[in-house]
Amino acid sequence: MVKKSLLALAMGGLAIGMTEFSMMGVLEDFAKDLNISIPTAGNFISMYAMGVMVGAPTLIMATSKYSPKKVLIFFMLLFTIFNSLFVIAPSYNTLLIARFMSGLPHGAFFGVGSVVAAQLATKGKEAQAISIMFAGLTFANLVGVPLGTKLGQVFSWRLTFGIIASLGLITMLAISLWVPNLKNTNKGSLVEQLSFFKKWEAWVLIVMISIGTSGLFAWISYISPLMTNVADLPKTKIPIIMTLIGLGMFVGNFIGGKLADTMSPNKAAIISFASMAICLVIVYFTSHIQIMAYIMSFITGLIAFTIGSPIQMMLINNGKGSETLAAAAGQASFNIGNALGAFLGGIPIAMGLGFNSQLWVGFIMASVGSIIAAIFLQLKSKRV
Questions:
Q1: Is the Cβ–Cβ distance between 231 and 357 less than 8 Å?
Q2: Which domains, and CATH codes, for the chain?
């Protein structure tokens, strides 16, 4: 039976997953409402990712002396306030600022949450415990994002993000009731914790995650125009596509946790990135076939999210004494991938190469991620 404490973390993952991925589902409606192009609307995906990159290390460092439970509640308070600001922001510039701010607590929450989940886990099942927390994020893609996409299409994207803001309040309550007061594992001063970034492992992992995960975001950031313009699906079918992606992510998340605990996080990461690269090539050549668009949405979502738990465990294992900061750095890196994928994927689209041209960008980035993971494994094995 799943511990209530892990369910509380999963609820945070649900809220964060909805605010991150709902923008992709409502992208066309959002662009139309603001009277901007789809690639320009993609800036809001990149701006959120930039918020994560900035917020993950800074919020972790600012709260390193406090208990994990209080820190998690504080992060969800920020989440609620900033997403509420995004709902009421009146103009393009104020929306852009609010979107940046709403990304600030994202990586910090998952950074602290990953360490808390590992502490709560049975020995030898740390990656699977982390996968339970990330199950909330994948459940967001399974149920929350399709529902939010539908609400955005029928009513307004502002309603979607209003509901997301309310989830932050519910998560705060769940954490306060179910998460125990755990010992702060951060050792030494802030300067000593920052020594994690003096390790070569830290920077190889940051580069690996940033580049490798951008393959996912080059694909999913433009999933709506890919389906409507290439697969020729009506816009009303996008929620079904998002549900299939979410179902795939939900399943893949647990597979990734099992792989990381069974073979090793590093080997699991190599397999995950390589599989993602292959998958994106298949999507490119089959996306015009409607039945394959449905099938590959599920499969690509599954493969993409096998990477979550392995990379978190790689960071925690290589960041002894600075586990929280290391895990948060992973989330920052993941969202560098988000920004890179959305930005680089938008370039061939803006050049008029088609709404499936971004898949080749994704293929290259995921392939490079797999190569870096393999090099990292070789370097570590030589130093043992």
A1: no
A2: 4-383 (1.20.1250.20)
